[in-house]
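Dear colleagues,

As part of the handover before I leave the project, I'm documenting each prediction I ran so the next person doesn't have to rerun anything. This entry is a single chain, and its sequence is reproduced below.
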Amino acid sequence: MHKSAEPGLKAAIVFMLTTFLFSWALWAPLAIDALFETSTPRLPGQFFLASFGPLAGGIAASYYQGGKAGLASWARSIFRLRLNAQAFYLTGIMLAAYFVIAVVTTRIATGTFGPISHLGETNKLPGVPPVLVLLIWMLTFGMGEESGWRGWLYAFLITKYTPVLAAACVTAIWMVWHLPAFAFNENYREMGWGVVGWAISLFYGSVLLGWLFQKSGSIIPLILWHGAFDLITASDYLPEVVPMVISGIVILQGIYLARQQAAHRHPNANAGQMLCR
């Protein structure tokens, strides 16, 4: 490995260590309680606080690379408000389409539009109005994850790999990050062989979000997308088929984008192969 690659690789290690330590430290008590039927002390909203692990990783890695100036530069670059208009419209169209598909799927599955009135309701936030639930999803798993996964890690990998390979690397790390949730999150615990479909949707979702990040140059559209996606798929009172259909649509989008990106080889695609080996 060339010496010039070492600082970037070390920063990536800082990112991953910080991300996992932050999130797993908060999720570990939830996993222990679920596995051993104990009752450890908890912070308010501990499940959601863990979502800021990737953000903490991005902060730590950026500071490691460039100190305060590097951190400020990174924050300005990923949170910039001057968005590509096309990316903004595409995000809006996608989210509107997901909502319409969720409504239609609910009607077909139940014979009524009634359950869609419970869109966004989740046992993780009992009694919280859907609008506030959406805001919470965007500010936690939306901003917390996307600032790190796409805003730092994908942005680092895309300088060395093709977009598809960069997305695959992010997906592998993203999947491992979720491991504690398989102990305490009912949706994950009941997944069974559905974990294969989950992994596929995570990969193609990573392709889609990576493409959107490159197109917009900001994580703001990704925050909106991630929050709205969670609002629909984590709704506890919609038919189970709804998140399956929405995830299927995301997979189809990712397949299309992956095929498009595969036709354009990145100039540095052969560099930095140590990171994903």
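Residues 6-36 form the longest helix (31 residues). Confidence is low (pLDDT under 50) at residues 1-5, 267-277.

All the best with the project,
I.
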